[in-house]
C-alpha cells in the first residue's frame, strides 16, 4: 500500500499542472466502466448478499454513480475557475488583487462500506477525480466478490498511479487508514469512524466521515397517513433497511399509532406479497448481522415492547437457510432498549408515541444529531418549527432518503453522524485545496499607506479610516 501511495504522489507531482482535459478523460473512463460492467457489478453484489435485487442495485448503486459522474463533468470547468475575492481598503485602490484557486490535494483514500458497495465507492470517486486527484480505494471485505471485481475493472480502465483498489480484511483497512493521504473519506459506522479519525490524526490527514445514526421520522397530525406509510415502507424495506439514511424510528401522535402501523403493514404487503422467494427483496448481508437484528427484537420484547411482524405470505423464516428477515414493527419502545440505542440497519421499525410536536422535538434534541431527519405533514408552521428547532445532516420533507438523490445538494452528517460532505460543489471543494493568491501592485503600497515604520501622518490617516 505504501508503494502504491508513493507512486501516486510522485505521479501527481510530476504531472502538475494537469489540464482539465485529463480530468474529463478520467471521468469518461469511469462512466464507461459503469455502463459496460454495471450489470456484472450488480450480480456480484447480489452474490455477496446471498440475494439482492438486480433492479435495486441498478437503481441505488449503478445509475446514481453514473449520474454523479455526468454531473461532475458538466460543472467541472465552472467549479475550477479561480474565484475573485475582495481586498482590504485602500489596497484595492492601489491595484492589489486577490483570488482563490481550487487546486487538487494529491492522493485521496476512499474507504467504502458494504451496504452500497458500488455507489458509495463510485460517487465520491467521481468528485475526487473531478477535483484533479489520484485515488486509493479500500472496499469492504464483507462484499468480497464486488470488491474483487472492482479491483479487476479499475486495473483495466486506469493506471495504478491514477486509481488503485486495495482488498483485504479489517487489518488491511486499519493499515490503510494510517497512510499519509492528502485526504481520507470514510463511509461506515460511527464506532469505526472514531478509530479512523484517530489513525488519520497521526499524519494530520484531513478527513471526511460519512457515518450514520438514528434518523427520526416525524408524522404530524396533518400528514396523509396512507401516502406517508407508502413512502416510509419503501424507504425502510429498500435494501432490507441496510441504509444509513433509512428511517430508524417513527414519532407519531399517540392516537394515530394503530392507524400508522396498519397503513405501513398494508404498504409492505402491496410491495412484497412474499419475501423469501421474492427477487425484489434483499437479504441481510450475513448471519452475524441477521442474529444482531433478532437480538434487538428479543431485547425489546423482553423489556415490554410489542412486536408486529409484517409477513404478508405467512412464510417460515426460521426454517429458511438464508438471511432474509421480514419487517418487525415495535410498539411501546423506550430508551432502555438496545433498539433505541443502536443504529438498526435492518428491517426493524420502532414507533414512539408523542402528545405534542414539542415533545417529539425534545426527544430528538436529547439524542445524537442524526444523518437524516424526515417530516410528514401539510402544516407549514409545524414543519418550520421542526426544521428550525432540530439539527441533522439533511432533511427530506414528506418522504424519506430522497435528499441524497439530489446531486446538487451537499450530503453529510453532523457530530456523531459525520463531518464534512460531498455531492454538489461542496464535494468538489472537499477534495480541493482552496489556495489563496494575493497580487501586490508594483509600487510600494506599505509606504503609501503608512504601514511600515517610521509611522507618521499616513499611518494615522490609514488607522483613522480603518477605525471608522
TrEMBL record:
Cited PANTHER family: ALDEHYDE DEHYDROGENASE (PTHR43570), ALDEHYDE DEHYDROGENASE ALDX-RELATED (PTHR43570:SF20)
SUPFAM superfamilies: ALDH-like
Organism: Novosphingobium nitrogenifigens DSM 19370
Location of the Aldehyde dehydrogenase domain: 3-437
GO biological process: aldehyde metabolic process
PROSITE patterns: ALDEHYDE_DEHYDR_GLU
Pfam families to which the protein is assigned, alphabetical: Aldedh
Active site: 210, 244
Record-given protein name: Aldehyde dehydrogenase
Keyword terms: NAD, Oxidoreductase
Cellular component, GO annotation: cytoplasm
Protein family according to the UniProt entry: Belongs to the aldehyde dehydrogenase family.
GO molecular function: aldehyde dehydrogenase (NAD+) activity
Amino acid at each position: 500500500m505504501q508503494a502504491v501511495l508513493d507512486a501516486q504522489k510522485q505521479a501527481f507531482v510530476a504531472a502538475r499542472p494537469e489540464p482539465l482535459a485529463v480530468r474529463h478523460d478520467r471521468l469518461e473512463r469511469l462512466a464507461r466502466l459503469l455502463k459496460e460492467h454495471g450489470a456484472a457489478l450488480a450480480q456480484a453484489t447480489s452474490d455477496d448478499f446471498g440475494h439482492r435485487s438486480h433492479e435495486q442495485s441498478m437503481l441505488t448503486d449503478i445509475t446514481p454513480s453514473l449520474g454523479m459522474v455526468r454531473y461532475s463533468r458538466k460543472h467541472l470547468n465552472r467549479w475550477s475557475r479561480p474565484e475573485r475575492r475582495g481586498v482590504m481598503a485602500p489596497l484595492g485602490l492601489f491595484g492589489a488583487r486577490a483570488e482563490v484557486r481550487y487546486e487538487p490535494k494529491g492522493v485521496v483514500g476512499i474507504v467504502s462500506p458494504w451496504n452500497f458497495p458500488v455507489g458509495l465507492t463510485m460517487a465520491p470517486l467521481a468528485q475526487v477525480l473531478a477535483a484533479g486527484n489520484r485515488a486509493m480505494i479500500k472496499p469492504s471485505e464483507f462484499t468480497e466478490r464486488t470488491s474483487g471485481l472492482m479491483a479487476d475493472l479499475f486495473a483495466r480502465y486506469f493506471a495504478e498511479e491514477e486509481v488503485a483498489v486495495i482488498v483485504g480484511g479489517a487489518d488491511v483497512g486499519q493499515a490503510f487508514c494510517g497512510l499519509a493521504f492528502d485526504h481520507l473519506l470514510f463511509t461506515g459506522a460511527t464506532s469505526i469512524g472514531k478509530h479512523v479519525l484517530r489513525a488519520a490524526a497521526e499524519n494530520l490527514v484531513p478527513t471526511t466521515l460519512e457515518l450514520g445514526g438514528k434518523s427520526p421520522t416525524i408524522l404530524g397530525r396533518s400528514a396523509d397517513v396512507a401516502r406517508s406509510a407508502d413512502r416510509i415502507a419503501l424507504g425502510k424495506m429498500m435494501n432490507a433497511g441496510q441504509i444509513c439514511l433509512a428511517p430508524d424510528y417513527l414519532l407519531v401522535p399517540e392516537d394515530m399509532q394503530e392507524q400508522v402501523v396498519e397503513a405501513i403493514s398494508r404498504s409492505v404487503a402491496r410491495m412484497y406479497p412474499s419475501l423469501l422467494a421474492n427477487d425484489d427483496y434483499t437479504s441481510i448481508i450475513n448471519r452475524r448481522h441477521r442474529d444482531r437484528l433478532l437480538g434487538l427484537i428479543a431485547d425489546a420484547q423482553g423489556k415490554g415492547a410489542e412486536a408486529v411482524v409484517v409477513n404478508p405470505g405467512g412464510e417460515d423464516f426460521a426454517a429458511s437457510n438464508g438471511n432474509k428477515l421480514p419487517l418487525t414493527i415495535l410498539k411501546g419502545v423506550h430508551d432502555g432498549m438496545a433498539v433505541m440505542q443502536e443504529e438498526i440497519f435492518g428491517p426493524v421499525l420502532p414507533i414512539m408515541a408523542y402528545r405534542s410536536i414539542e415533545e417529539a422535538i425534545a426527544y430528538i434534541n436529547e439524542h445524537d444529531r442524526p444523518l437524516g431527519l424526515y417530516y410528514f405533514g401539510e402544516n407549514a408552521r409545524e414543519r418550520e418549527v421542526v426544521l428550525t428547532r432540530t439539527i441533522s445532516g439533511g432533511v427530506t420533507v414528506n418522504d424519506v432518503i430522497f435528499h441524497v438523490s439530489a446531486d446538487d445538494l451537499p450530503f453529510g452528517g453532523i457530530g456523531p453522524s459525520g463531518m464534512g460532505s460531498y455531492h454538489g460543489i461542496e464535494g468538489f471543494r472537499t477534495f480541493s485545496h482552496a489556495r489563496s493568491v494575493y497580487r501586490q501592485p508594483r509600487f510600494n503600497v506599505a509606504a503609501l499607506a503608512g504601514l511600515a515604520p517610521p509611522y507618521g501622518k499616513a499611518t494615522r490617516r490609514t488607522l483613522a479610516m480603518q477605525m471608522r
